[in-house]
Q: What sequence folds into this?
């Protein structure tokens, strides 16, 4: 159980904890139209690859609610949901599952779509526990663990992906402590991960992104663990911008770099990271912090939301099926049957 509910649904409404307001305010959005849901995904009121997938599934159930089960309307809403964010493969994965149910249901699909959305959420909740157990097994007693962005309950339907390893190790009494990277430009590390770590009483220190390398050296970082929005068939990892330099720094310092993902984040249809679409967001996210300008008017900014960490920098990939090590194509092939 988590002390906060990121995504929930009841007929006619998708409820989302508004993450743009954290940590200052705990407010819930009540989305009664699919466009409300899409807008919430786009502005990152709900974010993190698995949570986006769960939200898209509930958004599809909502599409059926508001259209009275009209298939043409539901499919139009699903097409719009699919384009809300490009990098997180879990969005399309969840919608593909909802489409199968829609195709398989003859009469009014509303009940079946609701059930499938709840199932996707429940499965995510359960697999997060397994990610936690596998991930925690990689963390030694007293580990100082660096993480980037937010991968906890706010980013998933359960206790998280990489964060689940931290929480599980903490609950096992391993006496770990966490270094949370701030994660510019939108500060998911500072605003969200620090908030979640505090909710659970996990000892943690915040650093700005530029301090990651020096912190590895001075604070004896024992491991890095992050999540991902999409992993390519060769093991290249798309994750929040700034992850790639952290992986390079980890290699330089001989620190293991782990990635924790639900199996649905593995996209065997993209051969390498170069084939993963990288979302680019508004320049204002870089030129301003929390709405306050930090660069002169007229500044041009490049704002990729994700980067690609090459597979050769990834020590292991944790999934609910276990821990996979390089070479990843062989590891994936061995675990892929059954999808
Ligand atoms: O832009 P965001 O906040 O949605 O980016 C989220 C991340 O990069 C997470 O690390 C990733 O989705 C894994 S979440 C379990």
A:
């Amino acid at each position: 159980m988590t002390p906060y509910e990121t995504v929930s649904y009841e007929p006619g409404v998708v409820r989302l904890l508004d993450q743009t307001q954290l940590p200052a305010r705990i407010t819930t959005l009540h989305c009664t139209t699919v466009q409300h849901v899409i807008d919430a995904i786009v502005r990152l009121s709900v974010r993190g690859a698995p949570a986006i997938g769960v939200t898209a599934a509930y958004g599809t159930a909502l599409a059926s609610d508001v259209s009275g089960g009209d298939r043409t309307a539901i499919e139009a809403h699903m097409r719009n949901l699919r384009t809300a964010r490009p990098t997180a493969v879990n969005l399309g994965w969840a919608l593909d599952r909802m489409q199968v149910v829609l195709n398989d249901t003859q009469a009014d699909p509303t009940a079946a779509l609701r059930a499938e959305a709840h199932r996707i959420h429940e499965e995510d909740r359960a697999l997060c526990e397994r990610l936690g157990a596998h991930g925690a097994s990689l963390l030694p007693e007293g580990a100082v663990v660096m993480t980037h962005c937010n991968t906890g309950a706010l980013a998933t339907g359960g206790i998280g992906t990489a964060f689940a390893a931290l929480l599980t190790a903490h609950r096992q009494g391993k006496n770990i402590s966490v270094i949370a990277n701030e994660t510019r430009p939108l500060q998911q590390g500072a605003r969200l991960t620090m908030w979640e770590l505090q909710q659970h009483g996990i000892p943690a220190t915040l650093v700005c992104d530029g301090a990651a390398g020096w912190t590895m050296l001075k604070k004896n970082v024992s491991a890095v663990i992050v999540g991902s929005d999409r992993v390519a068939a060769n093991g290249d990892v798309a994750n929040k911008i700034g992850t790639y330099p952290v992986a390079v720094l980890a290699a330089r310092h001989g620190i293991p770099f782990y990635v924790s993902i639900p199996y649905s984040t593995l996209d065997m249809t993209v051969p390498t990271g170069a084939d993963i679409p990288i979302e680019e967001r508004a320049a204002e996210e870089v030129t301003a912090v929390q709405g306050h300008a930090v660069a002169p008017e007229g500044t041009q900014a490049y704002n990729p939301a994700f980067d690609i960490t090459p597979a050769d920098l990834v020590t292991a990939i944790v999934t609910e099926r276990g821990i996979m090590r390089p070479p990843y194509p062989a590891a994936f092939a061995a675990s892929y049957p059954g999808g």
